[in-house]
Task: inverse folding
């Protein structure tokens, strides 16, 4: 199921720091999985660390600051399940969506398949995601 909710204009939110998204980011493409608290997924499940007010680990670098403006997703379901199981109190669900270039850009930013998705301004991030796994 391809996601609706893509932005009309391909620009990033004005709150993004300079040189963000990171060099080497590519147009979003393909299936991704997101750990969520809600079923069905809600807008609050797709907030960035920046939007959620989460403190960044020291030292704060340009890279970590930029990644805090992106959304953590996984390319492999089993990797999302592993992430969910690391934190027994949360989250409780895994949602699946299909990103296209109209949704922003992505870059693998961790192992094994952790990817940061920088959504274009105006993208309704949770639209098109469906729950595929529950705890």
Result:
């Amino acid at each position: 199921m391809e996601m609706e909710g893509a932005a009309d204009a391909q620009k990033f939110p004005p709150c993004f720091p300079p040189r963000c998204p990171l060099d080497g980011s590519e147009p979003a493409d393909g299936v991704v999985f997101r750990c969520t608290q809600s079923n069905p997924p809600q807008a609050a499940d797709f907030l960035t660390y920046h939007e959620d007010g989460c403190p960044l680990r020291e030292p704060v670098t340009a890279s970590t600051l930029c990644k805090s403006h992106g959304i953590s997703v996984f390319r492999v379901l089993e990797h999302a399940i592993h992430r969910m199981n690391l934190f027994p109190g949360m989250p409780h669900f895994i949602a699946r969506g299909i990103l296209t270039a109209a949704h922003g850009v992505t870059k693998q930013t961790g192992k094994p398949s952790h990817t940061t998705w920088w959504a274009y301004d105006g993208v309704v991030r949770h639209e098109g995601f469906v729950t595929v796994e529950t705890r």
Q: What stands out?
A: Strands lie at 26-27, 30-36, 71-74, 93-99, 104-108, 114-119, 130-134. The two ends are 23 Å apart (CA to CA). Residues 37 and 120 are 23 Å apart (CA to CA).
